[in-house]
Amino acid sequence: MSLQKYYLLDLEEYFNADGISYDSNPQDGLFSLSACYPAEELPESNSVVDIDNIPIKFPSKEDGDKNNIECYNQILPVQPGLYKRLFVLGSCDNGNFEEKIELIYDRKVEVQKLYLSDWITEKPFTEKLAFRCEHAHSRDGDICFYRANMWMQTVEVDCTCQLHKLNLPDNPCFHVFAITLERGEN
User: Do 148 and 120 contact (CB within 8 A), yes or no?
Assistant: First the structure.
């Protein structure tokens, strides 16, 4: 996996939700209906992980840290450049959703569909399974009849125009944990 081909967005300042907790403090996170992902079954905090040869910067799992973006139409600046693909690590709560993401280039704005499946269901869309946890956490402890999933979805980008910004969907059930862009040919 060559990091030179990729740009890993730093989303830390945009994180507005905590969806991960440790067994020792299950009250820490709140992803969906008083439940969240178990930290022990996910990658190390702030690590770069390989998902099908795509580098993803996994967020902090530490108590009290925000680690995902609950989408409210946020605009994310991108290092201007030519990119061919956008990889989103995320999931939805309360259902499977298809939303619009705006790709803001130097000369145009392009609207693409972004599909993400629910975190505790099998995927109906074309994402890749990034992580599967054997349980979820509730405020009271483990929920063993749920398998909590994180998905990686791919969005094609126009590699002939300089991408400058991303405008996320306006749906608080959409959760983004990481975004990686694959550089286009120069």
Answer: yes
- Tell me: the pLDDT tens digits for 139-173? 777 777 888 999 999 999 999 999 999 999 999 99
Burial of 103 (0-12, 13-18, 19+ CB in 10 A): buried
For the segment 26-52, what is each residue's pLDDT rounded down to a tens digit?
A: 888 777 767 899 999 999 999 999 999
Cα 153 to Cα 27, 54, 66, 83, 138: the distances in Å are: 29, 11, 21, 16, 26
Residue-level pLDDT at 133: 94
Determine the 3-state secondary structure of 3 from DSSP. helix
What is the C-alpha to C-alpha distance for residues 148 and 145, in angstroms, rounded to an integer?
10
* pTM for the structure as a whole: 0.95
pLDDT of amino acid 83: 97
Coil/strand/helix, residue 39: helix
Question: In whole angstroms, what is the distance from residue 108 CA to residue 162 CA?
Answer: 9
Side-chain half-sphere exposure of 125, counting CA atoms within 13 A: 24
- Which segments within the chain are labelled E, that is strand? 6-8, 20-21, 35-38, 48-51, 54-57, 69-72, 75-81, 83-92, 97-105, 109-116, 128-133, 136-138, 141-143, 148-156, 163-167, 170-183
